[in-house]
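Hi all, a correction to my earlier message: I attached the wrong file for Ribulose-5-phosphate reductase. Here's the right sequence:
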Amino acid sequence: MINQIYRLVSARQIEVTYKDRAISSDHVVVRPTHLSICAADQRYYTGTRGEEAMKKKLPMALIHEGVGEVAYDPTGEYAVGTKVVMVPNTPTEEDPYVAENYLRSSKFRSSGYDGFMQDYVFLNRDRLVVLPEDMNMEVAAFTELVTIATHSIARFERKAIKRRGTFGVWGDGNLGFITCLLLKYMYPDCKVTIFGKTQYKLDHFSFVDEKIFINEIPEDYMVDHAFECAGGKGSQYAIDQMIDHVHPEATLCLLGVSEYPVEINTRMVLEKGLTLVGSSRSGAVDFQKTVDLYKAHPEIPEYLSTLVGYTQEVTSVKDIITAFESDLSSSWGKSVMLWKI
Ligand SMILES: NC(=O)C1=CN([C@@H]2O[C@H](COP(=O)(O)OP(=O)(O)OC[C@H]3O[C@@H](n4cnc5c(N)ncnc54)[C@H](OP(=O)(O)O)[C@@H]3O)[C@@H](O)[C@H]2O)C=CC1
Ligand SMILES: O=C(CO)[C@H](O)[C@H](O)COP(=O)(O)O
Ligand SMILES: [Zn+2]
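and the right structure:
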């Protein structure tokens, strides 16, 4: 069949390409219905990802956060119309120690490989997770971002010392919101503090124990462990404060992506015996865990609906451009494309 793929060819320029795809029993064909824009997509769309990466990875279809409905499964394992979340990472080998999202051989959609902006997505059958039938699909669209927090907390759990009294999360945006929320559910007895910059953003964090402006942190305020969800230029400032405001032997989980190397106060990392744990992307197991969490706690998707910031019906390339441009000027939440192209 002929599939249409909507590829970014240079900054702010998207073109349609046509690709002939053979249907095989290895693949499930999914029709995307709701696609959500990630900060990483915006770095490619605006060209701020850096000249070298743009040259190396383009042209490619953007978007690695998305859900859809099964359009065809040659084996009949999935019924037509089944609502699924799509896993953007495609591993090509297995390793007994290294997770699929850290294997250099893995192919990650919208980072050198075509993302979900296509008429149909051909997925290996272990690259989709069935969603509850009554799931809010605008929320489900950014499940991939939720899996980033799921994955990072799982790494934290394996690597940190066992004290779990207080957590600090730096970054009052999407990932900070999700990380605070999951911490509250995974460690119900712990105190979670959000460290942010903007009152109206912090107002959305109704479920945390404390909200603190980053320029008003009391000198003696300490947490057991900290998560960095700021990214960009904010990463360095956040990591600096995290180092100052954690107890000795804390674990600092780093999630924010920065285009430039950030300076870290290694003297204090050494003196306090801190563990820095970086996390990038996620794997199929994190998607299954996240969907299980949605099912066990239906309040989680309800809280997450606070993050649906902007929705755009997409029936043309012009609508895709509108969605990306509007996302750039949106001050809160995720932008979701209702994929009807
Ligand atoms: N590791 C991974 O696999 C993934 C990483 N990411 C990355 O995570 C980062 C956050 O993404 P997302 O939440 O969607 O982006 P947002 O822009 O929604 O959130 C970032 C928030 O952090 C705030 N901020 C900036 N500096 C600081 C600071 N020093 N202390 C506290 N808060 C600060 C920003 O405020 P303001 O806007 O006012 O500056 C903003 O509200 C990005 O870099 C993104 O690329 C995303 C997905 C996966
Ligand atoms: O958003 C992400 C995962 O959800 C990652 O930050 C993103 O995949 C990083 O990739 P790239 O190197 O292409 O920016
Ligand atoms: Zn992303």
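Sorry for the mix-up. Residues 38-40, 145, 148, 170-176, 195-198, 201, 214, 229-232, 234, 237-238, 255-257, 279-281 surround NDP (ligand 1) (CB under 6 Å).
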